[in-house]
Amino acid sequence: MRKKRGYDREVPEELVRDYKLFAIACEGGKREPQYFGVFRYLSPRLAVDVIEDVVTDEEMAVLYTHKSAPRWVLDRAMRYIEKEGLAPEDELWFVLDKDRWSDEQLRGIQEYCEQQPNWHVAISNPCFEVWLYFHMKADIAASASVSCNDFKHEISTFDKGGYHALKYVPLLKEAIKNAENADTHPGHFMPGFKETKMYELAKSVMSFVGENDFDDFLNLKLPKLIAVEDARIRASERAKAYLAKRNK
C-alpha cells in the first residue's frame, strides 16, 4: 500500500497509475494556497500538495538580497520529496512572482528544473494576481495596474465580497484561454510584463482532470463548497457581533 498526501485513502500500488499528484511550491501569501487548495476537488483522481514554509519578511528579504533564494526554493522542494516521495507520473511546480527575482535567479531555477523529470516553473509578471485577473477579464492592457499592490487592489474590486478562490477556480478554462492569448513569448519560460505562465500549470491539471470530472466539480462539488464557506462566514460574523456587543 502506498499513500500520497492529498489523498483521502490509501491507494493500492497497482492503482497508483490512475492517480496523480501535483506538488506546488509557493513563495508565500494567502491567495496562492487558497487557490490551489481548491484544485484537490477537481477530480477524485487528483491530489494537490501546496508546499509552504513559514518565512518572515525579514528572512525573505535576506534571501533575495543575497541571491540565496533559488537555493532555498530548491532545497525546500528536496525536503518535501525526501519526506513525501514523488512518483514518476507526479509533477512538481514552482509558482513564482517576477517582482521578487532577478532574471539570473529565475533562469537558475528554470535550468535546474529542466534537468529533473516533471519539474516546472510557472512565473507571473509581476505577480500571481495577473493570473487571477485573466479569470475575470481578457484584455489586461486595459488595466491601469502596474505594481503588485495595484493588481491586488484591482482584484479585490472584481466582486463586492472580495477575493475568494471558489469564485476563480470555476473560471479556469477562461483564464487559460485569456492568459495564453496574451502570452507574447510562447515557448519561453519568462513571461512579458502583465503576462503569466500559470496557464501552463493549469493546462497540465485540466488535461488530467478531463471534462467529465470538471463538470462534476462545477455541478456537484462547488455548490457544497460554497455552502460550507457561506456557513463559515455567517458564523464568523455572528462571533464578531457577539464580541462587539459584549465589549461595549
The level of helicity is 40-55%
**Number of domains in the coordinates?**
1
How are strands sequenced across the largest beta sheet?
2-1-3-4-5
Element-level helix/strand string:
EHEHHEHEHHHHEH
β-strand number: 5
What spatial form do the alpha-carbon principal axes imply? Answer: globular
Would you write up a description of this structure?
- The chain is α/β, with parallel strands linked by helices and 248 residues long.
- It has one domain (13-209).
- The protein has helices at 31-38, 57-65, 69-84, 103-114, 129-136, 148-156, 165-168, 172-182, 198-246; strands at residues 20-26, 46-51, 91-97, 119-125, 195-196.
- A 5-stranded mixed sheet has the order 2-1-3-4-5, with helices on both faces.
- Helix 1 (31-38) links the parallel strand 1 (20-26) and strand 2.
- Helix 5 (129-136) packs across helix 8 (172-182) and helix 8 crosses helix 9 (198-246).
- Mean pLDDT is 85; it is low at 1-9.
